[in-house]
Write a structure and sequence with these properties.
The complex is a heterodimer of chains A (414) and B (392). Chain A contains ten helices and twelve strands. Chain A is an alpha+beta fold. In chain A, β3 and β4 form a beta hairpin. About 4% of the residues of chain A have low confidence. Chain B contains four helices and 26 strands. Chain B has a four-stranded antiparallel β-sheet, with no helix packed on it. Chain B starts with a helix and ends in a 50-residue tail after the last helix. The N terminus and C terminus of chain B are likely disordered. The chains are: A alpha+beta (414), B mainly beta (392). Chains A and B meet through α1 and α2 of A and α1 and β8 of B.
């Protein structure tokens, strides 16, 4: 009888598991995901029973792919010489790490991809540690480059959650969904949503990191991996993003006391005024209400209010283009850098190593129409497609015909 | 004891009901077919350590075209590399390749944001350009990244925008398909939902997967859409559905990148038959498989990550139950042909049941977009069937 009962119980449990399993349409859903998506009980390929040989490879198993969707990396086959990576996420495409640009300006020069972003180690996808001696540790910090993976910044098992009262904790209510999007549900009492992009915080440090705050506050439009040639993708950033970066790059942060470009500090009224009126080099006729530029984002009011402040600002249809308010909104690391990688050294959002980013009305490129724009000094071994992609397909005509670097969006020295 | 029975009766009934529900909703798993690993595509230096590359099989010649990061390699039907040329030797930059029945190679290339179809000879030397003409305005944003040539028709797919354009062999527009609208998805999903697998079978059916929907789709030339697949981790279910192809023998093969398997479904009723591969480093195991194609002899070519190369399988249906259903004469004929073609016995002939429709005569379904359902030409078409072989 006991055997019969046990059999029935097992059969019942098995049947319920199979028959009643929900048809999941998301994977992370704001917290720890389906375990077997990343771990294999009997066929593991890497430590921690990972399905791939390391953590980042496990991430890229899903997150590398064709253009669009939730992909953050482009397969090498899809980006041959002369062709850019395919993804247009605000964080940038890790595929830039695979690019090499050769050109001749006062002698032959080579730009290797490793200088274009965070060199995550994903052996199964050919991503290796930064080989530069000066980058054995994170710039401005001690985090070893041999440890860098997607999970250095993102917590794959994130317990952080945003509760109904707006506070962030690691417990208190179940996570019902992702909290990164303008379409994410507002958590009701007794509910929570995940934190932005499952980013880490003070309670989820890993070896080598020193996050000191709650995870950064931000909201992205639900459709974010998209070309910006028609409308921009505006991610609404709130508090803690620069302090998050300082978790590995503390000496790059203003708090270090070193002589650095300020971050997490309110813009002066002059800077905010420049941003509001800047259209392009030599053109300060803009208005603050339409001055937003996705290549120079900013932090809104150092806020942690996701529901009433950040969500209305996150848009991809140019319906929200207001610029910063002086003494309130802030410059931060991502005003100038992308988080993953970019087409430029130091993963800046624009080519900061030349004076002008637009020449004769077009993006410079080896295949540019204008002979001026073809010049190696400006094209730097890149095709126009590569240069345009690094700007998420923004149009050169959005700027002046001879547009200087976008430091001027805030400083208007041109 | 009696009270015990009474107490557990509802549980027993509940268990039986749930078991029957779960059984009926689970995919049919016959276990009668299996995938046998043959070898990896190789050069004279050994296995070629391809990662995620693009693969196309010329089923006329059973040659395998592989587009890597820098080179385009061609392998013969024994899996040996016989030719290689630079990806940039093709005018523009080659993104995908198709092969016409007469052996002409068609490259989908890009130059300065504009795509073109470059016709090349067997050495990859350009012959001419096929201009795509008459594409309507609603496809102005169309930027294809996949190309297939079937039944004298050219199929171009923009997997990101989920659009497909079909032209005749000369590039004259015949049909445009907005898959997003066809599947009644919302416009805001464009770019978020993308085609993760795309192919066209010999009957002109378009096969697609959309990973985030955990679904595979078959779109017939008559415009009928059928779908199958469900999310899950048990055999026959989808985690990250990727490449999809018909093997021409009654099966649809679907790659699951995350589960590291190739699933075999009956193309008639989409019933799950079997799956093979599985994660691992041993021969025949797979690491993050992605793209798939088959040759005329049913060999299955699968790309994978970690520079594990392109693994070649055959699907073995030679179980006793199925053998009984094989049409004897045709089975023998096929075996003889297989031996002749192979010249050796290292690749065993694949036999097929009636259920697999390998030899069934089912009237004349349309095989071309624009044809009538009875198989007659709808107006734009030329006669199908070019020369086999005969490279220019």
């Amino acid at each position: 009888m006991k055997v019969v009962k046990l059999t029935l119980i097992i059969a019942l449990a098995a049947a319920m598991t199979i028959a009643l399993a929900p048809s999941a349409k998301a994977f992370h859903s704001g917290g720890v995901a389906e375990c077997v998506g990343c771990h294999s009980m009997h066929e593991a390929a890497g430590g921690a029973l990972l399905t791939m040989s390391d953590a980042s490879s496990t991430c890229l198993d899903c997150h590398e792919g064709s253009a669009g969707s939730y992909h953050v990396s482009t397969a090498a086959v899809d980006m041959p010489a002369g062709s850019p990576p395919l993804q247009r996420t605000p964080g940038g495409d890790f595929g830039w790490l695979r690019k090499v640009f050769n050109y001749n300006v006062r002698g032959p020069r080579t730009e290797n991809g490793e200088q274009f972003g965070h060199n995550i180690i994903a052996a199964d996808f050919g991503y290796v540690a930064d080989s530069r001696v000066e980058h054995n540790n994170a710039p401005g910090g001690t985090f070893p480059n041999a440890n860098l993976s997607c999970t250095s910044c993102h917590d794959q098992h994130s317990k952080y959650r945003r509760l109904s009262d707006g506070s962030v904790a690691t417990t208190g209510a179940p996570i019902i969904a992702a909290g990164s999007y303008n379409t994410s549900p507002a958590p009701a009492a007794g509910e929570a949503v995940g934190v932005y992009r499952l980013l880490r915080g003070a309670l989820s440090n890993v070896t080598g990191t020193n996050y000191t705050t709650a995870p950064p506050a931000a909201i992205t439009p639900s459709s974010y991996n998209r070309a910006e040639n028609v409308t921009m993708t505006r991610v609404a950033y709130g508090a803690n993003m620069s302090k998050f970066c300082a978790g590995c790059h503390p000496d790059m942060h203003t708090d270090s006391g070193l002589l650095l470009h300020p971050v997490e500090q309110a813009m002066s009224s002059t800077v905010a005024g420049n941003y509001g009126s800047y259209v392009g080099s030599g053109d300060l006729t803009g208005t603050p209400a339409t001055s937003y530029d996705s290549l120079v984002p900013f932090v809104t009011d150092n806020t942690t209010d996701h529901e009433t402040v950040l969500k209305p600002l996150a848009a991809n249809d140019d319906s929200v283009l207001g610029g910063p308010a002086g003494s309130v909104d802030r410059v931060f690391c991502l005003s100038c850098h992308r988080a993953h990688a970019s087409g430029w050294e130091f993963m800046t959002r624009w080519d900061n190593e030349i004076e002008m980013i637009v020449i004769d009305g077009e993006w410079p490129g080896t295949d540019a129409t204008s002979t001026d724009a073809q010049a190696a000094k400006w094209s730097k071994g890149r095709t126009q497609a590569e240069r345009s992609a690094a700007y998420n397909d923004r149009l050169a005509t959005d700027y002046a015909t001879y547009q200087r670097v976008l430091c001027n969006k805030c400083h208007a020295k041109d | 004891m009696k009270s015990c029975h009474r107490t557990h009766l509802p549980h027993i009934l509940c268990a039986l009901i749930l078991l029957s529900v779960s059984y009926s909703s689970a995919p049919a798993q016959t276990g009668e077919a299996k995938g046998d690993f043959l070898y990896n595509l190789s050069s004279f230096q050994g296995d070629v350590p391809f990662g995620w590359v693009r693969i196309t099989v010329d089923r006329g010649q059973d040659e395998i075209f592989v587009i890597g990061r820098d080179d385009i390699s061609i392998f013969n039907e024994k899996g040996m590399e016989v030719y290689r040329f630079g990806r940039q030797e093709v005018p523009g930059i080659a993104y995908d390749v198709a092969v016409k029945e007469d052996g002409t190679i068609l490259f989908l290339t890009y130059e300065r944001y504009e795509y073109s179809i470059v016709s090349c000879n067997f050495r990859g030397a350009p012959l001419s350009e096929i201009e795509i003409r008459g594409v309507p305005a609603e496809f102005s944003e169309f930027k294809p990244n996949r190309i297939v040539f079937r039944n004298e028709q050219l199929y171009l797919a923009d997997t990101q925008r989920m659009m497909i354009v079909i032209t005749d062999g000369e590039g004259r527009y015949m049909k445009g398909l907005d898959i997003l609208k066809l599947l009644e998805l919302e416009e805001k999903d464009r770019g978020n939902k993308v085609l993760t697998g795309f192919s066209v079978d010999s009957s002109g059916n378009i096969l697609m997967t959309i990973a985030v929907m955990f679904k595979a789709f078959r779109l017939s030339p008559e415009g009928e859409v059928k779908q199958f697949g469900r999310a899950g981790s048990i055999p026959g279910s989808f985690n990250i559905a990727a490449g999809i192809v018909s093997d021409g023998r009654g099966n649809i093969l679907v790659v699951d990148t995350l589960r590291c398997v190739i699933m075999v479904f009956d193309e008639e009723d989409f019933g799950f038959k079997t799956e093979f591969g599985y994660r691992g480093l041993a021969p025949g195991k797979l690491i993050a498989p992605k793209e798939i194609d088959v040759d005329s002899k049913g060999r299955v070519y699968v790309t994978q990550a970690r520079r594990r190369g392109i693994s070649v399988f055959r699907i073995d249906f030679t179980t006793p139950e199925i053998m009984e259903e094989v049409i004897p004469d045709q089975k023998e004929d096929d075996r003889g042909k297989e031996k002749d073609d192979q010249g050796s016995t290292d690749v065993v002939a694949v036999s097929f049941s009636k259920n697999n429709k390998a030899f069934s005569a089912k009237g004349k379904p349309a095989t071309r977009w624009g044809d009538k359902a009875d198989g007659s030409r709808g107006g734009n078409g030329r006669a199908t069937g070019g020369k086999q072989g005969g490279l220019p």
